[in-house]
Amino acid sequence: MQTEHNEIISKARLIGLFEKNRKLLVRNDTKFLAVKRDKAFASFVELGFPDTSLESWSLTDLEECLARGYDYHLHPMKEMDIQKVFRCNIPHLDTAVIGQLNGWYVSKDVPLMKLGNGIIMGSLAEARKTYPQLIEKYYGTMADDMAEGLTALNTAFAQDGVFIYVPDHVKSPRPVQLINVIHHGENLFLQPRNLIVVGANAKLSLVHCDDSYNHQASFSNIVTEVHVGAHGVLDHYKLQNLNNESTLVSSVYFRLEEAANLESHYISLNGGMLRNNIRLLFNGPHGNANIYGIYLMDGRQHVDNQVFVDHAHPGCTSHEMFKGILDEHAHAIFNGHVLVRRDAVKTDARQTNKNILLTDTARVNSKPFLEIYNDDVKCSHGSTTGQLDTESMFYMRQRGIGEDTARMLLMFAFADEIVSKIAIPQLRQRIEDMVKKRLQGELQICEQCVLHCSSPEHPVEFQIDMSKILA
Amino acid sequence: MESEANKILDEVTQGDYKYGFFTDIDMEYAPTGLSEDTIRYISNKKNEPEFLLEFRLKAYRHWLTMAMPKWAHLDIEPINFQDIIFYAAPKRKRELSSLDEVDPELLATFTKLGISLDEQKKLSGVAVDAVIDSVSVKTTFSDTLSKHGIIFCSFSEAVQNHPDLVKQYMGSVVPYTDNYFAALNSAVFSDGSFCFIPKGVRCPMELSTYFRINAANTGQFERTLIVAEEGAYVSYMEGCTAPQRDENQLHAAIVEIVAMKDAEVKYSTVQNWYPGDKNGLGGIYNFVTKRGICKGSNSKISWTQVETGSAITWKYPSCILMGDNSVGEFYSVAVTNHHQQADTGTKMIHLGKNTRSTIISKGISAGKSNNSYRGQVRISKNAVNSRNYSQCDSLLLGSRCGAHTWPYIQVDNKSSIVEHEATTSKISEDQLFYCQQRGISAESAIGLIVNGYAKEVLKQLPMEFAVEAQKLLSISLEGSVG
Questions:
Q1: Quick check: A455 contacting B, CB < 8 Å?
Q2: Are strands B402-411 and A363-372 parallel, antiparallel or unpaired?
Q3: What is the pLDDT of residues A447-462, one digit of tens each?
Q4: Which of A321, A375, A379 to mutate to test the interface with B (most CBs of B within 10 A)?
């Protein structure tokens, strides 16, 4: 069986699906990978889908999302219009674009490229065949199949996804844009698997977008493993703009070697149910990680950011800052967990979560959690939830700025603390525009890729009569 | 510097438990173990009315369906409830009417504790309801109190003399279904304090109980109920010590506070139970459910606690802010040393409009101990214009201890503001250097810094307690790191 149609997702169904199709799933696996897959499957059989009895899932209930009917495809679908994927490139920005459609790698020419400087990027399925040793060295070494049922499920079923390899001492000259588009006539359950390796002293900028094209429901269980070698630098952007029917569980496992540097930006603009599992391990001393997040939610959207930072080695610095604006019935959850182990002296860890609630029906749950087993540390966390500052509003109204515009300006300023951290100027401009559009309620999940549709001729401006202000 | 600091750390960590003495007085025990018979025995011994026995049995049956909670950051050896004596009372031949009739050994115990009833009576004007192993022995100043219509007596007396009040309020804040230990307490509670402040009365003195666990292998299950009627005010103090014993002793208490319109209740605790020796042997298991409800508008409940004892502390004094404009406060200093484990914090449940809460928590961990703050701030949809400010700081002394912060924040409306901040650090070497440079020894300097660190909470304590709390801090901590 290669495709299952419109069935609700249950543990039993997936166990059946795996058992029936095991041969197909392992056909390109090396022995090492096949063992990993079987172990992960056994772990899923034991753990099943996470439910609200688990503390980390107590506020995000997947039951309703799973109970819909979904198709499951074990082969790439024929009807793909790959051109759609490549419309999403960011204007005026020279990027290497690689794409995924419904979880499968798509390319205009070859499925796996090796550039002159040694950078490899393309389909993970192809890479397994072409570079088995390289894959074995990294694949499955970061993701935790034993603790998370959904990660185990992904490993058990993983077929395709994106593989990027930047060799030691190579600095990628252009940012890589990875576009993951969901576009299908039926509800889809998909499980892409990505592996990103940045070698020692290497450098990569990666823009990772999750988009949907139509209003069809989908359930994505994405696992991404990211390895940054000693002194390596990764600039990572995750943009999420999915329709309100979609469920996205994105688990990203970062592993930072000695003095590695990570900047990660999570920009959640839309999505029915977004869950970001961000797990970061300092696997060597003197690493540095900044994780920023902004979520702008309305309607009945639900966003859940779970950030776990494991300070296993001394002298590492981690800063987390997540900010959100919640309108209508939106619900946001932030769970930060910083673990400072016994020997991780000179750790500097900071967690910040700030929320603005625009309505009485919006909800926030915030849990910044510190677990510290060492005295020579500098750790802090802060969490605030409130409204737009009335004094600032007054100040602007007094100067002739309309109430709506003033509110927009304040919200934009609130979000800008995160957006301004984006290092690529063209991308920052683009995301600023998207945030403005989002706040003005103009950013829609239409029949277009969001990055494309948000490329107006003129940048989005606030309607402020400057003559009144300057006079 | 380093070695000196270690030396001081050793000195402190090897310091003996000052209150570890055992008073040999005649005791009367319930049969070991827990069953409906034990409960009937306790109820019968205390000559309780039918409704209370029913309450106990219902709680017991509910307890049987529950399992020991595992969510706390505590490593607890399984407790065998059949190995515990659930009731121990000093044998009393007749009713006591004056201090002279109290067992001199018992009085000496109090003297060692530094709360000689006599002295307290004469000097401090504090009314003391001393609870030794479950039975309240003597209540002082009841005459003065009764003049104001204040009822301050042991729980058993209240059951006999004011059954209606007990029936009305008992279990109204902490129902027996609340949690595992609340159910256990509701089934087997032995005694405790009862305090009722009538409408418009400002209690002229600070009320105080002194709990003490004396006999080996007895759990102490006391139950305190404080009711402040409209416009009433009371400041209530609770202090706890236990003698040194090798086996873990179980303590599962319930404190319930009800504050009606415009009432204010201030509850202060100094808990200095035996924490176990430096190898983590023995010590008290302390599982306490403390909760207050601000029932009427403009009411206020304030918890202040200094926690230095117990091998395991599981305690979350909470406020349910039901009345509009009501105020909840929580000030805490929790110190852990050796192998002590503390998982403590508070819950502020905002239900009424314009409710406010403040949380100041200072955790200090030394030795191989683990000290966790676990707090919940919940602003419900109807609690418009509510405000919370939380500050949870942790101080780590030594590289083998742990400090953890678990704040749970939930906000369900747009007009409320919630702020939480926390820091974790060690004593700054700059501060130490500054003091030492000026001729202050390392030990005194650390004492100074730690006391300064905890000042914000200590200043909330009533005078008598503040002095004791500072002493306790100095015993458990002074000079414990570099």
A1: no
A2: antiparallel
A3: 334 444 444 445 566 6
A4: A375
Look-up of token digits 């990628």: A172
Candidates A55, A372, A388, A407: best to mutate against B (most CBs of B within 10 A) is A372
CB contact under 8 A, A366 and B399: no
Average pLDDT of A250-258? 97
Coil, helix or strand for B86? coil
Classify strands B151-154 and B193-197 as parallel, antiparallel or unpaired. antiparallel
Q: Compute the average pLDDT of residues A242-270.
A: 94
Interface check B416 vs A, CB under 8 A: yes
Query: A158-183, pLDDT tens digit by residue?
Result: 999 999 999 999 999 999 988 888 88
Whether B181 maps to a domain, the answer reads: no
Residues whose CB is less than 8 angstroms from the CB of residue B465 and which lie 6 or more positions away in sequence, other chains included:
B237, B239, B268, B270, B306
Is residue B197 domain-resident?
yes
Query: Taking CA atoms, what residue in B is nearest to A367?
Result: B408
Structure ipTM over 0.85, yes or no: no
A45–chain B Cβ distance below 8 A for any pair: no
Residue B266 CB partners (closer than 8 Å, separation 6+): B234, B235, B236, B302, B304, B462
Kindly report which listed range (A6-10, A263-267, A273-277, B15-19) carries the lowest average pLDDT score: B15-19
pTM summary value:
0.85
Is the CB of B71 inside 8 Å of chain A's CB atoms? yes
- Chain A residues close to B403, C-beta within 8 Å: 370, 372
pLDDT per residue over B102-148, tens digit each? 556 655 655 655 554 554 443 344 555 666 555 554 455 667 788 89
Under 8 Å between Cβ of B377 and B345: no
Distance (Å) from the alpha carbon of B448 to chain A's nearest alpha carbon: 19
Distance CA B482, CA B480 (A): 7
The nearest CA of chain A is from the CA of B376 a distance in Å of 9
Q: How many CA atoms lie within 13 A of B139 on its CB side?
A: 21
Domain count, chain B: 1
Q: Of A368, A372, A381, which has the smallest distance from its Cβ to B402's Cβ?
A: A372
The answer to whether A74 and A158 are in contact (CB under 8 A) is: no
* Mean pLDDT value across chain A: 87
Host domain of residue B375: 2-22+103-176+189-476
Find chain A residues with C-beta within 8 A of B419's C-beta.
382-384, 386
Is A6 strand, coil or helix? strand
Is residue B47 included in any domain, yes or no?
Answer: no
Contact: A375, B481; criterion CB under 8 Å: yes
Q: Which tens digits make up the pLDDT trace of B276-323?
A: 777 777 788 889 999 999 999 999 999 999 888 888 999 999 999 999
Interface touch B396/A384, C-beta < 8 Å: no
B10: its two tokens: 């050793």
- Across the interface, whether the CB atoms of A55 and B417 are under 8 A apart is answered no
Q: How far apart are CA A412 and CA A464, in angstroms?
A: 14
- Does residue B91 sit within a domain? no
d(CA A6, CA B219): 59
Residue A31 has pLDDT above 80, yes or no: yes
Q: A136-140, B304-308, B355-359: which range is least confident on average?
A: B304-308
Residues of A in contact with B404 (CB under 8 A): 369-372
Q: Tens digit of pLDDT for each residue in A277-331? A: 999 999 999 999 999 999 999 889 999 999 999 999 999 999 999 999 999 999 9
Q: Which of B71, B411, B481 sits opposite A364 (nearest CB)?
A: B411
Interchain CB distance below 8 Å, B412 and A363: yes
Residue ranges covered by each domain of chain A: 3-470
Q: Is B410 on the interface with A (CB under 8 A)?
A: yes
The overall longest dimension of chain A from CA atoms, in Å, is: 75
**To the nearest whole percent, how much of chain A has pLDDT over 70?**
89
